[in-house]
Specification:
The complex is a heterodimer of chains A (380) and B (267). With 380 residues, chain A is of the alpha/beta class. Chain A has eleven helices and four strands; from the N terminus they run E-E-E-H-E-H-H-H-H-H-H-H-H-H-H. Chain A folds into two domains: 12-101, Transcription Regulator spoIIAA, CATH 3.30.750; 139-378, no CATH class. The chains are: A alpha/beta (380), B alpha/beta (267).
């Protein structure tokens, strides 16, 4: 470490005995910026215990700043350990005042809850937390369904304006991204199918492949992933910020149920819009597949259309539609829940948004796998 | 910390506003505001809610450029200089305690105090750690060095914010509503701390407040802003304003009287 302050002499200290008293002689410049402020040993005053207070000789003291105070604080703590009083009368006045503000011993350090890593505690806590979480989300689902039923008979405290705002934010404004994603997915499916099917002169079955894949799986999953990232993250961040501003507390005190006022409109908005976005996604995806098929393969547009209509039975749409509703409920509930349990700081809001997106996407894919198994059992 | 041997017995005020007009877009907050802050004083910016106290502070710490007028630091035009120069002045001379302490929530208290040192000095980690403990020790928070801001109470957060403001040894301290949201005892402890720090650091303090007990306890000079006329209507220390000011609105504010005049003025 080189000195950044020009023209300084190194700080020096010496403990000496004058007339039976301990005197600490300080010399040189004590500038913190120079980076080499010495430390006074904790037990430096224990062995040469003398009668009377520790005095200071500041005759050779040059310039000083917080560096000197840091050293003097060391001395003050060491003197407290040795039970030796300090006589600061020869110190510069402002140094004496600053020293007076500093405690003679460092208080018991507070332990932060976020420090330290204990694997078993962590694992146990996580496991218990997971069970508790399943309970909480189930309860949330129950109150939300309850609120939804009461909303049907117009008894829930849900405001039309909130629901409308949520629906608008979740639905129409997501059209562009849903279009882009599904169009490209349809086009990609057609590319993959075209290369393989052309070998068997089965070009026309590209329409089956694109249509079935989109309606059964891709449109539902891609739309759900887009919504988990777009709307789920937004819900979690919004509710976490409301918690930080004590807005949630205010709702509770006034007696407005959070499930009715916050969660129900959010979940309902997704339940209303996502199936529609799914149907729209199917259409746009098929358009993507159509464009690629027409330009790459030996198929007429009418042939593609006819083959597509033929290939997809209606129950495939019902299957995709049902899945989308389940995804919507899952995304809405988990992101609201994550927002509600978030901490109150700015960093916590970021964590909540991230978690909502991650859990939303993983959840969608996991649920999709479950649906695939169920469909196999039922025989759809 | 200013070297006590070098402190000049200067007659020019340390900080001065000259005919400053502050505005957000078309909305004028204060106009033709002038004031002098003497070196070593504790200068209070007083006034009712919504009169622009915090806005005046913002223009002095570099967050809001005045529409007209000058802010002078030892005669140097702060807003006339380059942005680089303003940053340099702010870093080397200003310490700011924000209204809600504004501690960076993702960092521990110690890291909050250490960050300015890590960014702007070449000190090694051991020295920084010692200085962080020193700053926290000055405000009585050395035990909280490893806690997160969310684990602190309101008063502790204010003190930690003060330690962060002291991080780079500023000689001009700005406090925005230091006692807001604190109980009377915590608030008076903070007042003592501000007085002690002013005396021992040879600092100058600009404080924005409407808490009368704390104003009377610490401020030795000040200005009273008015929301109606949008300018300063009285200059002087809070106690002088209370006892001698002829303006009925200022007297009413300082003596905590409810008159129809002052109610309209504070609205």
């Amino acid at each position: 470490m080189t000195s950044t302050v020009p023209d300084t002499t190194s700080p020096a200290w010496r403990l000496r005995l004058t007339n039976g008293r301990n005197v600490l002689a300080l010399g040189g410049d004590w500038i913190a910026q120079s980076g080499h402020i010495p430390e006074f040993p904790d037990k430096g005053l224990l062995d040469n215990k003398q009668e009377g207070a520790l005095a200071f000789d500041t005759g050779d003291l040059g310039r000083w700043d917080s560096g000197l105070i840091a050293f003097l604080w060391d001395v003050k703590r060491a003197a407290a350990v040795a039970g030796l009083p300090l006589d600061g009368s020869t110190l510069p006045e402002s140094a004496r005042k600053l020293l007076g503000l500093l405690p003679a011993e460092i208080g018991e350090p507070g332990l932060s809850r976020s420090r330290g890593f204990r694997p078993f505690n962590w694992l146990g806590g996580k496991t218990l937390g997971m069970f508790a979480e399943i309970g909480v989300v189930s309860e949330l689902l129950a109150t939300t369904v309850n609120g939804g039923l009461r909303a049907v008979v117009a008894k829930a405290m849900i405001r039309g304006v909130d629901l409308f705002d949520n629906v608008r934010a979740a639905g129409p404004s997501a059209l562009i991204i849903v279009s882009v994603v599904n169009f490209l997915i349809g086009a990609i499916l057609a590319f993959v199918g075209a290369v393989q099917l052309r070998r068997f002169a089965a070009d026309i079955f590209v329409a089956n492949l694109v249509g079935l894949a989109l309606v059964r799986e891709m449109a539902a999953v891609m739309t759900a992933i887009v919504m988990a990232g777009r709307t789920g993250g937004a819900y979690a961040a919004r509710i976490a910020t409301m918690r930080g501003n004590e807005e949630i507390d205010a709702l509770e005190v006034v007696g407005i149920p959070i499930s009715d006022y916050l969660i129900l409109p959010s979940v309902l908005a997704l339940v209303f819009t996502m199936p529609l976005l799914y149907l729209y996604g199917c259409l746009v995806g098929m358009l993507g597949g159509f464009v690629v098929s027409i330009s790459m393969l030996n198929i007429t547009s009418l042939g593609f259309l006819h083959q597509t209509l033929d290939a997809i039975p209606f129950d495939q749409f019902v299957f995709g539609f049902t899945k989308t509703i389940a995804f919507a409920i899952m995304i809405g509930l988990t992101s609201c829940r994550i927002g509600l349990q978030a901490g109150r700081s700015a960093a916590d809001v970021g964590t909540a948004a991230t978690r909502a997106v991650v859990i939303g996407i993983v959840g969608v894919i996991a649920m999709d796998a479950v649906f695939a198994v169920l469909a196999d059992v039922v025989g759809i | 910390m200013a070297d006590p041997l070098l402190a000049p017995a200067n007659k020019t005020p340390l900080l001065a506003l000259r005919d400053v007009t502050l505005a957000f877009g078309p909305k004028i907050i204060q106009r033709d505001l002038s004031l002098d802050v003497r070196r070593g004083s504790i200068f209070a910016v007083m006034g009712g809610s919504g009169c622009g106290k915090s806005t005046v502070l913002k223009s002095m710490i570099g967050l809001l450029r005045p529409r007209e007028g000058q802010f002078l630091i030892e005669g140097e035009d702060y807003w006339g200089g380059s942005e680089q120069r303003r940053t340099e002045i702010g870093r080397s001379r200003f310490g700011v305690l924000f209204q809600n302490a504004a501690l960076w929530s993702a960092m521990t208290v110690g890291m909050n105090v250490a960050l300015p040192m890590q960014m702007f000095t070449k000190l090694d980690d051991t020295t920084i750690r010692r200085l962080v403990m020193l700053k926290l020790g000055l405000v009585g928070m050395e035990h909280a060095v490893d806690l997160l801001p969310s684990e602190l109470s309101g008063g502790m957060r204010k003190r930690a914010g003060l330690a962060r403001a002291l991080s780079l040894d500023p000689d001009i301290l700005f406090f925005d509503e230091p006692s807001a949201g604190l109980d009377p005892i915590t608030s008076s402890r903070l007042d003592d701390l501000i007085l002690n720090l002013r005396d021992s650091l040879d600092a100058t303090v600009v404080i924005v407040s409407h808490e009368l007990p704390s104003l009377f306890a610490i401020a030795d000079d000040g200005v009273f802003l008015d929301a109606q006329t949008k300018t300063a209507i009285a200059h002087g220390s809070p106690s002088a304003l209370r006892d001698n000011c002829t303006d009925p609105q200022v007297r009413a504010f300082m003596q905590r009287e409810h008159t129809s005049d002052s109610a309209a003025g504070k609205g």
